[in-house]
Amino acid sequence: MTGATCVGAALLALSSVTTSLAVFVPIWLCLGVVMAGALYEPCFAVVTRALGPSSRRAITAITLLAGFAGTLAFPMNHWIAEAGGWRLASQAMAGLALFVAAPLLWLSTTRLEACALARAPVEDPAHRPSQPTQAPALRGRLFFLLTLGFATVGASHSLVLNHLLPILESHRMSDDLAVLIAAGVGPMQVVGRLAILGLERHLSNQAVALASCVAVGLAACCLLGSQFLPLLAVPFVVLHGSGYGTVSIMRPVMLRETLGEANFGATSGRMARYSTAAAALAPFAGSLLWLIGGYDLALVIVALACVLAFAAFASLAAQRGRPST
Q: Which of 75, 83, 106, 227 might form a disulfide with 2, Cβ 3.0–4.6 angstroms?
């Protein structure tokens, strides 16, 4: 993670001084590759290996702080870019990544690796509850359901977020109001994560995942109805932000709970591959749906997709109790 962060900082700094589009585009693509080694997936793999059953609270805290960071980063970038241009903003972010993020990642991952080494000898592999005991066929079904659920919710979020401003414009809302609504989604993700911290002892992971599907689906319905009643934009922001804010927590936690810690990094990477692909393709799918039937059709599809994700998560318990074939 530290190495990926350093390489990412170098690429970001390099992108700020290039004057050729032919050079800028490959640098930008390489930045996307480097991000895969520096963000949530590798972080959660390290945390899960080091903390095991205690990882849920740590993952919640990490996503909570990351949510605050994301909320601050957008206006900070805007202010720097307004003052000195986008190149200065890129250089400032590269400096933060290299001189703040990289040292913190080095220190934290070193300590987590030490925790993982200290934890390993005291656990009896024959009685380790998180080790996978399911037959391959059952593990395949469970992995499919988890991946389907999280990829579908992620795609729904991506479609709505990338098309939110044109959706609100089609609902005849002013530009200022549309920007305000869009800006409210991020802080509400932080609120959702705070709620998880307060309720983690009272709700199962599956219940939280199901609630997330319901919230994101209802948010799509509220956004659809806001063309007739603009006040419905308020519950949209609350439901979509808080609902999706818990998904990044539940993905690694439910993966460990369902399939165990063995090969967690590789399994998490496989799931992320499908989830990332779904999120990347969702905006294009949204554009096609808009061409076919407008944004009303796109939002109906989002709501139906959340129903599919709900069904996938609801099926997990039944699959665990079903013999493999």
A: 106
Residues 211 and 313 in one domain: yes
92 within domain boundaries: yes
User: How many C-beta atoms lie closer than 10 Å to residue 242's C-beta?
Assistant: 25
Give the C-alpha separation, 226 to 140, whole Å.
41
Tens-digit pLDDT string for the chain (325 aa): 899 999 999 999 999 999 889 999 999 899 988 887 888 778 888 888 788 777 777 887 888 888 778 778 877 887 898 899 999 999 999 999 999 999 999 998 888 888 777 766 555 554 454 444 555 666 788 999 999 999 999 999 999 999 999 999 999 888 888 888 888 888 898 888 888 877 777 888 889 999 999 999 999 999 999 999 999 999 999 999 999 988 888 888 888 888 877 777 788 888 888 998 999 899 999 999 999 999 999 999 999 999 999 999 999 877 665 554 4
Residue 129 has phi, psi (to 5 degrees) of -65, -25
Beta-carbon neighbour count of residue 137 at 10 Å? 11
Residues 6+ apart with CB under 8 A from 251: 44, 150, 268, 271, 275
Q: Which of 119, 145, 179 is the last residue of a domain?
A: 119
* Domain presence at residue 303: yes
Are residues 309 and 301 in contact, defined by beta-carbon separation less than 8 angstroms? no
Angstrom distance (rounded) from CA 193 to CA 207? 15
Residue 38 located in a structural domain: yes
**Is the Cβ–Cβ distance between 269 and 214 less than 8 Å?**
no
Q: Number of structural domains, the chain? A: 2
249 with 309, same domain?
A: yes
Q: CA 274, CA 149: separation in Å to the nearest integer?
A: 11
Residue ending a domain, choose from 119, 151, 185: 119
Where in the sequence is the domain holding 34, given as residue range(s)? 2-119
Q: Cα(238)–Cα(216) distance, rounded to whole angstroms?
A: 10
CATH number at residue 146: 1.20.1250.20
Phi/psi of residue 20, each to 5°?
A: -115, 130
Is 309 a domain residue?
yes
